Automatic annotation (TrEMBL):
Family the UniProt entry places it in: Belongs to the glutaminase family.
Domain of life from the UniProt record: Bacteria
A GO term for molecular function: glutaminase activity
Subunit annotation: Homotetramer.
List of residues binding substrate: 63, 113, 157, 164, 188, 239, 257
Entry keyword set: Acetylation, Hydrolase
Name by which UniProt lists this protein: Glutaminase
Catalytic activity: L-glutamine + H2O = L-glutamate + NH4(+)
PANTHER family xrefs: GLUTAMINASE
Pfam families found in the cross-reference section: Glutaminase
Source organism per UniProt: Streptomyces melanogenes
EC number: 3.5.1.2
Broad class of enzyme this protein falls into: hydrolase
Length: 303
């Protein structure tokens, strides 16, 4: 597969869409990101990376980090995690409180904010320092020791994090949060504020294309656990647009309001695309189109 030629074709095809949509305004530190940016990278199973546009420019990974926190929590704690968070699409906005009351404080899936808070809470219990554990894992998988938290973004999220605090306190009232809420929120905000490039994220997600094997060849997850994460990404990874994303793209994917989307082709490669302009449901306008073009041009999908 000539990934480099495919990426150049995609960049040309989606150029009219770059700049459409709006950067995430509810996080002030993200609101001023240039919406005309576009980058895309593909990492093959051996770790060779191909890229186009701003593929080496760091951006705020945001909710994409939920994939890696979920993997670490599963690797450290096993299937007991699923007693605290479901695996079903929510059909509601990512920060909704509505379903928690109906479902006794058990979030629908690990990628909505409530579910991600539960996963981070579990990782905090297992490691004692969830955000640092995540950062170290990402540095190892990418081979990039310079990966770091963006303190400005973390502080911005904390200052505007009342909804996440409400979610955490509500779940704590049902006994579904083990750590004190301020500590949990601190780790969650720092987790979301990690800066990574398309190349970094494509490399970091490679264990999902390699059926659970890390960059060094050691096993992080069983094949079954890697399949579980890919399945939840396919059905729940793009907020309440997951059905449309699965229909258009046909790959496990996870988006973030920083404008990035990671996608996995099990047994072949991983991808990351970044363009900060978001649609009404929080997904990158040009990013979704780029991944759609990738599956069309290459014929690679899970179906």
């Amino acid at each position: 597969m000539d990934y480099q030629a495919v990426l150049h074709q995609i960049a040309d095809d989606v150029a009219p869409l770059v700049g459409r949509g709006t950067p995430a305004a509810y996080i002030p530190a993200l609101a001023d990101v240039d919406p005309s940016r576009f980058g895309m990278a593909v990492a093959d199973l051996d770790g060779k990376v191909y890229g186009v546009g701003d593929w080496q420019r760091p951006f705020s990974a945001q909710s994409i980090t939920k994939v890696f926190t979920l993997a670490l929590a599963l690797a450290r704690g096993g299937d007991s995690l699923w007693e605290h968070v479901g695996r079903e699409p929510s059909g509601n906005p990512f920060n909704s409180l509505v379903q928690l009351e109906y479902e006794n404080g058990i979030p629908r899936n690990p990628f909505i904010n409530a579910g991600a808070l539960v996963v981070t809470d579990r990782l905090q219990t297992l490691t004692g320092d969830a955000s640092s554990e995540l950062l170290e894992f990402l540095r190892e998988e990418t081979g990039n020791p310079e990966l770091a938290f963006d303190a400005v973004v973390a502080e911005s999220e904390s200052a505007h994090g009342d909804r996440n605090a409400a979610l955490a306190h509500f779940m704590a009232s049902y006994g579904n949060i083990a750590n004190d809420v301020p500590t949990l929120l601190d780790h969650y905000f720092w987790q979301c504020a990690i800066e990574m490039s398309c190349a970094d994220l494509a490399l970091a997600a490679r264990f999902l294309a390699r059926h659970g094997l890390r960059a060094d060849g050691s096993r992080l997850l069983s094949r079954s656990e890697a399949k579980q994460i890919n399945a939840v990404m396919l059905t729940c990874g793009t907020y309440d647009a997951a059905g449309d994303f699965a229909y258009r793209v046909g790959l496990p994917g996870k988006s973030g309001v920083g404008g990035g989307i990671v996608a996995v082709v099990p047994g072949h490669c991983t991808l990351c695309v970044w363009s900060p302009g978001l649609d009404a449901r929080g997904n990158s306008v040009a990013g979704v189109a780029a991944l759609d073009r990738f599956t069309t041009l290459t014929g690679l999908s899970v179906f």
